[in-house]
């Protein structure tokens, strides 16, 4: 059988639909973020990165780099085993304590990524709690959806951020079955924020546990970077908070926090925790330094808010449509995959601006977009350069429209 022909058939379809994923070949340059070297067929040149999830530039922070280098010298490169078989290092446990403290919880549990933490935790809870029903926000991330699917628990999808719909669905379920309300705080593509208080109140009313993904919020919201749940004083009412070390903290890894019993339960049954090599201790040391730093420092968060506001104001002035939200994510809506790709290519080629086109299935068809994430390290001149580029682009698009 010609397997490559089978693969290529589907790949061609993806390309025809405009949904094939090309990626830029970037080379991050220490200390220069948000600049990076872009390798393409014309050679190597510096570009400004406008779509990084290293939201605060912590991936290049001298203290984080120093912590990682020190730990590599001290512990070597890898963990040497799964967490249960020789792979648990002192640095992992220190990091878990730091994370538990960040969210005011009894315990925390590390995973190799945020994706794995969602997948492992939800699949374990859903499969191990008898007759469990998981109520999942319609906008939830793929890692949560896959975890729920794998658990084979009954799944009920409620309308995105719609507390009334959630309550209607909770009301229909038997009182005595375990229920989990799974949702996110900051949704990554629209940048909208969940009404956490209302969701928690409804969940409490029906005796459901709450599962909150704060991947796009940890490090960035709350006085110590504990996420939107910290900012709103609600962390102690959320049963399980999940986060990543790979975005605002600038390293890699994922985690859950909650009661000691909850973390021990997932530690004991989750295959995504048990059967995989632990994170390198140096990664844990770097992440702990990043978390501890952002618990104290407000400078990065404040400067990021300023740059987000500046970009939004400039887009408004130019009449460039962007989705309004209260987070750091600035989606400029295009609504067509081929056009989105063309615009991104043009920005890279002509303006040395890198922003990845966001297409289906990451976002629904017809809502393709350019997603900008201003960081504290983008200068006012960077914003001006981006706006100049978009102004020219928008004029050309309007012209193309008029001729067509
Ligand atoms: N949850 C959400 C909401 C995400 O957007 C992502 C990744 N973009 C993840 C979880 C997975 O996190 P990680 O990148 O650490 O695997």
UniProtKB/TrEMBL annotation:
GO terms for molecular function: 5-aminolevulinate synthase activity; pyridoxal phosphate binding. It comes from Yoonia algicola. Belongs to the class-II pyridoxal-phosphate-dependent aminotransferase family. NCBIfam families: 5aminolev_synth (TIGR01821). Residues 46-390 form the Aminotransferase class I/classII large domain. It catalyses: succinyl-CoA + glycine + H(+) = 5-aminolevulinate + CO2 + CoA. Its cofactor is pyridoxal 5'-phosphate. Pathway: Porphyrin-containing compound metabolism; protoporphyrin-IX biosynthesis; 5-aminolevulinate from glycine: step 1/1. Coiled coil: none annotated. Signal peptide: none annotated. CDD domains: KBL_like. Its EC number is 2.3.1.37. It holds the Pfam family Aminotran_1_2. Keywords: Acyltransferase, Heme biosynthesis, Pyridoxal phosphate, Transferase. InterPro entries: 4pyrrol_synth_NH2levulA_synth (IPR010961), Aminotrans_II_pyridoxalP_BS (IPR001917), Aminotransferase_I/II_large (IPR004839), AON_synthase_class-II (IPR050087), PyrdxlP-dep_Trfase (IPR015424), PyrdxlP-dep_Trfase_major (IPR015421), PyrdxlP-dep_Trfase_small (IPR015422). It is an enzyme of class 2 (transferase). GO terms for biological process: protoporphyrinogen IX biosynthetic process. Homodimer. This is 5-aminolevulinate synthase.
């Amino acid at each position: 059988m010609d397997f490559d022909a089978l693969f290529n058939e589907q790949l061609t379809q993806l390309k025809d639909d405009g949904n094939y994923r090309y990626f830029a070949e970037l080379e991050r340059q220490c200390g220069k973020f948000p600049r990076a070297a872009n390798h393409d067929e014309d050679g190597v040149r510096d570009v400004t990165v406008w779509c990084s999830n290293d939201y605060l530039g912590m991936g290049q922070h001298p203290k984080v780099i120093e912590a990682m280098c020190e730990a590599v010298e001290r512990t070597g490169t890898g963990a040497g085993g799964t967490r249960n078989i020789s792979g648990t290092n002192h640095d992992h446990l220190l990091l878990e304590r730091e994370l538990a403290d960040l969210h005011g919880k009894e315990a925390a549990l590390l995973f190799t990524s945020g994706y794995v933490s969602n997948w492992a935790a939800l699949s374990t809870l859903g499969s191990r709690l008898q007759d469990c029903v998981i109520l999942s926000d319609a906008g939830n991330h793929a890692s949560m959806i896959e975890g729920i699917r794998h658990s084979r628990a009954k799944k009920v999808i409620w309308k995105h951020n719609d507390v009334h719909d959630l309550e209607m669905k909770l009301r229909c379920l038997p009182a005595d079955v375990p229920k989990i309300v799974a949702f996110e705080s900051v949704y990554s593509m629209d940048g909208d924020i969940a009404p956490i208080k209302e969701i928690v109140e409804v969940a409490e009313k029906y005796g459901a546990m709450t599962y909150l993904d704060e991947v796009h919020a940890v490090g960035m919201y709350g006085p110590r970077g504990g996420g939107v749940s910290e900012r709103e004083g609600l962390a102690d009412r959320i049963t399980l908070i999940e986060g990543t070390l790979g975005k605002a903290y600038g390293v890699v890894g994922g985690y859950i926090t909650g009661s000691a019993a909850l973390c021990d339960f997932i530690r004991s049954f989750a295959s995504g925790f048990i059967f995989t090599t632990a994170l390198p201790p140096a990664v844990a040391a770097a992440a702990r330094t990043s978390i501890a730093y952002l618990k104290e420092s407000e400078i990065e968060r404040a400067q990021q808010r300023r740059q987000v506001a500046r970009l939004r104001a400039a887009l408004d002035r130019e009449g460039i449509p962007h989705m309004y939200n209260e987070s750091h994510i600035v989606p400029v809506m295009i609504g067509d995959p081929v056009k989105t790709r063309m615009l991104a290519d043009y920005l890279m080629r002509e303006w040395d601006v890198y922003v990845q086109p966001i297409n289906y299935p990451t976002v629904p068809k017809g809502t393709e977009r350019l997603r900008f994430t201003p960081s504290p390290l983008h200068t006012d001149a960077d914003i001006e350069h981006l706006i100049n580029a978009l102004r020219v682009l928008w004029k050309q698009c309007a012209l193309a429209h008029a001729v067509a």
